[in-house]
Amino acid sequence: MRNKLLLWIFVLLFAVLMSLPWLVPHLGVLALVGFIPLLLADDFATQLKMKRFWVYSYAAFVLWNAFTTFWVCNATIAGGIFAVLANALQMSLIWGLFRVSRKRMSGVLPYIFLAVMWIAWERFYYSADISWPWLVLGNAFARTTHLVQWYSVTGTLGGSLWIWAVNLAIFGILSALSDGLAYRWNPVARSSAFIGLILVLFGPIAVSNVMYKHYSPVSEGTVDVVIGQPNLDPYHKFGSYTQAQQDSVLLGLYDKALEGRGNEHLLLLAPETFTSPMFLDRVGDNATMQNFHEFLGRHSNAEILFGASTYEFYDARSAPLLSYPYGDGYLTSYNSAVLADSEGNAQIYHKSRLVVGTEKTPYPKVFVPLDNWLCKVFKLNGPLIARCIGQDGPSTLVMRDSTALGCAVCYESVYPEFCTGYVKAGAQAMTVITNDAWWGNTPGFRQHLSYSRLRAIELRRDIARCGNTGISCFIDQRGDIVEQGPWWEECALQGTLNLSSRISPFVRFGDIVGRVCTLAFLLLLAMLAVRLFLPKSASR
User: Could you say which of 3.60.110.10, 3.30.230.20, 3.40.30.10, 3.30.930.10 is the CATH number of the domain covering 222-306+338-347+396-501?
Assistant: First the structure.
């Protein structure tokens, strides 16, 4: 009973240490020791030959997921519970394979296998059809960005590697001390272990501080931006407010912000899905577009970038798989960003990284026919799973003065290597438009904001972020928030984005850490497979 109680204490300590970086600012360093309680619990259970350790590991991961992402349930209870349990299950399976490797590999190999396997999974998760990479380990430093300026080289998975390296280094020394091995080390071995731990723990911090202090923001020109935060409750905005009323609120914010300004060229930024519906074959017929065009006629040097739910008609013969019946034909839907000017021009970018369930049907060849069958059986008017379509990858929206902007729509800002596509397409600065109020006053919208800070470092681009209800802000190339609006209040923020055409190493070379760890994982997995299928005596 005492042994089990100790294991549960380890489990709870792990969950708390790993959750605090996502819940409290400036506590990212706790992730550097967060896995040690679980590693100690695993070692303790192995020594005592305790069975069913998976119960403890799965419970640990469920608690970590629940503590940090419980807020998803505010938008969808079923989806939130599924996200917690399914994500924890994947983590638990990784840990289970690590425990298997300990039976066939000796020394430090199982622990190296655990680290590279975890990072390989995180890399895969970024591109999986069902993707929820919210708790990628490197995200622990999203609110401690002065420690990870080197993300401009490694990307976020470099932070995951750092977390594993420090956790395993400390655990290794603790294990050596408990086994008495450390007391038999000669002075050179002791010094090497101590110096190695210091370098692994403090080396990245020192490098980051040097990079932070000596980084000079690149400015190859600027663009003035006014962010409009209309503060429309998303649960009521489509029913309690007419689109004309919503347009009036937003344009009123812009009018007030532009009082006394000259006629300089500027960008007006509005939230995700601000207007609906907008049909792609007649964009100019949209009432909001007409209101914006009239407003821009009075501010001819301004352009407005806003979110819209857009649609496209098809006949039965040409309808894509992800379309759904509408009238005499079929309809496809998009979550789009639209850049409009006073001359009636409109450029459109369709969100590529879509939220599973609420926007995206995963594995459409399987789920679309099933969804159609269920709708037919239960005589439903529309699909059970949303069927938004995204474009193939990132592209830019180009202002009249040739300024190229990237626009990450909401969930897209969570994906590091995906966002490098905007810069590769020519983006000189970044925007993020989102609607984070679905989760209420919980850590969710703060976490989402903090991930944009990591993107600023990785891309070395200024970012203007517009949230329907907040938090709207300006982020510089070092990931610092230079100006921020309130949450759940109307506001208009004015700021300037520096333009840059320089390419960071992460943009140029991509996710090297993820690729190397994936290769190492596959090699070690092959070694484990060979040893599993050979007798123990032959595999040694």
Answer: 3.60.110.10
